[in-house]
Write a structure and sequence with these properties.
Esterase-like, Mycobacterial_A85_antigen, globular, AB_hydrolase_fold
Length: 242
């Protein structure tokens, strides 16, 4: 039986005020085992925060990495999703995309950094997201390179507008990116239509490689589901927390 220490977690629910979103946004802050206020920690910011907790099991993964593999502890900030406006906030053409990015950088980061001893260097802030959550995470890194230097993308929706954004960059050697895509993601149904996420990620890969992005790219058997992403998340976290 698994050791119960893997499942212990300290989670603090916060309401972050936001003028950009027009209402507060709930975030759930997961503190690592043995958290001390006098020590600073790297931080992972997760889009679709509830899913990272409930389906990605990110708190359990963090504990296992700390106890079993000696990975440095990190604070995990999981931002709740408002389902009705998720696409508007996460898709680059969305009506709320610009304001969500402003909320993230101008309101969420200062709120967290005032209350928790997280590190503020770009390579100590990790962005993580699945599907469109991977999209907005990459755009945040590209648009605010002084703030973010690492991105975990689980089957990112790297469609045309995102690929054009990558192509606009000349040098991405400063960016570390983990990209996972499933071989069974050739017909992913979304509210915007059906897309070939596998081909989209392959095209994004070529653009990123041409710009010297520090890439870890994985294609594995899998569908556009947390059942696939959950098992790959620990390796991504370990890579980024080295």
């Amino acid at each position: 039986m698994d050791d119960p220490i893997y499942y212990k977690r300290t989670m603090i629910k916060e309401l972050v005020p936001s003028s950009f979103l027009g209402e507060p946004r709930t975030v759930r802050v997961l503190l690592p085992p043995g958290y001390q206020e006098l020590i600073s920690y790297p931080v992972i910011y997760c889009q679709d925060g509830e899913q990272f907790i409930n389906f990605g099991r990110i708190a359990t993964h963090m504990n296992r990495l700390i106890y079993d593999e000696g990975v440095d502890p990190a604070i995990i900030v999981c931002i709740d999703t408002v389902t009705a406006v998720r696409t508007q906030e996460y898709a680059p053409e969305g009506a709320r995309f610009a304001n969500y990015c402003r909320f993230f950088t101008q309101e969420l980061l200062p709120f967290i950094e005032q209350k928790y001893n997280v590190r503020t260097a770009a390579d100590e802030r990790i962005l993580a997201g699945d599907s469109l959550g991977g999209t907005v995470s990459l755009h945040l890194a590209l648009d605010y390179r002084s703030l973010f230097g690492k991105v975990i993308s689980l089957s990112g929706a790297f469609l045309q507008q995102t690929r054009e954004r990558i192509a606009a960059e000349a040098d991405l050697s400063w960016l570390q990116l983990y990209m996972l895509i499933g071989l069974e993601e050739q017909e992913v149904t979304t509210e915007r239509g059906k897309f070939d996420f596998l081909e989209a990620n392959r095209e994004a890969l070529m653009l990123l490689e041409a710009r010297s992005c520090r890439l870890t790219y994985l294609e594995k058997p899998g569908k556009h589901l947390w059942g696939f992403w959950q098992h790959e998340l620990p390796a991504a976290m370990k890579l980024m927390l080295k």
